[in-house]
Request: fold
Amino acid sequence: MIQFTQSNKTFAVISWLNVLIGAAMISWLIFIGPLSMPFQIGYFSAMLLLTGIPHGGLDHVIAKNTAAMQKKKFTLSFFLKRYLFVIAIYSVCWITFPALSLLFFIVISAWHFGETDITYVNQKIFLSISRFCWGAFVLLLILLMHQKETTEVLIRISKKSNQIMHLWQACINNDKIILIAAATLNFILLGTAYLTNQLKFPITRLINLLVILIITIFLPLLPAFALYFGGWHAVRSFELIFNFLNKKENIIVKNPLMMWAKSLPMSILAGVAFLIALAIWNKSDITWDPLPMVFIFLSVITLPHLDVMDQMTRKKSSL
Reply:
């Protein structure tokens, strides 16, 4: 039986609040009209600033505590150098191999989303496969339900890569088959895991997640992605981090708000770095297009963040 503290309930309330915001946007679409692009960009930006970027702002704290549990040496300077080195290498890859870098980003995002959504598991190969398949399904659902908008984004990010566009067109041509097959596979995998006690997932949390995913189907791509990424993934990541840092014998943060505030310094640094990158992009000979910069920025900070979160969840599962 999974025990929930008051803090866990706080995160649940935040997730359901995001459901209400999503429902309000759908109501606007039905009764008033389309969501304006300034609103979509504003909502997307707000979710990035409030939860999307901050949920990675505690990586150094997580890494320090993970190292302590593993009885390994930790220094902030080495951690930051390694973190920035990974970001720099992946940034170069985006410039040199945009198509491959995009495919790699999709793969690591699928794993990261699955690892966060499917949290109460034993670390076994079967569950790892299940997690990845779930994350891939979430990505496919959001992308394939917004085909026109996704096509425009992929063209701009991949620099009109023929390989990417051919692969994407194949997905579009078989969208129903892909989504039905992915949903069926996940039902089998996760259902088997649940029935064999390898997976514990509260019904209210499952309903929360499914409602958010259903809402994303009816929203434009930007708010749909922002709702899932900022309104679910980042919130659940914060919950995982809070539980990890808030053990009885080693309380690092006393409440969720304090933890969020603790993430702000690194989040602000990430924001400043992004603004500098935008300025360099704008002053260079590269055609001005902020959208690729946004997704590339998210991808390069996701890679080292994924490593930190993966080590945390593995350590937490072994306790």
Remarks:
- The CA atoms of residues 57 and 263 lie 4 Å apart.
- The chain has 13 helices and two strands.
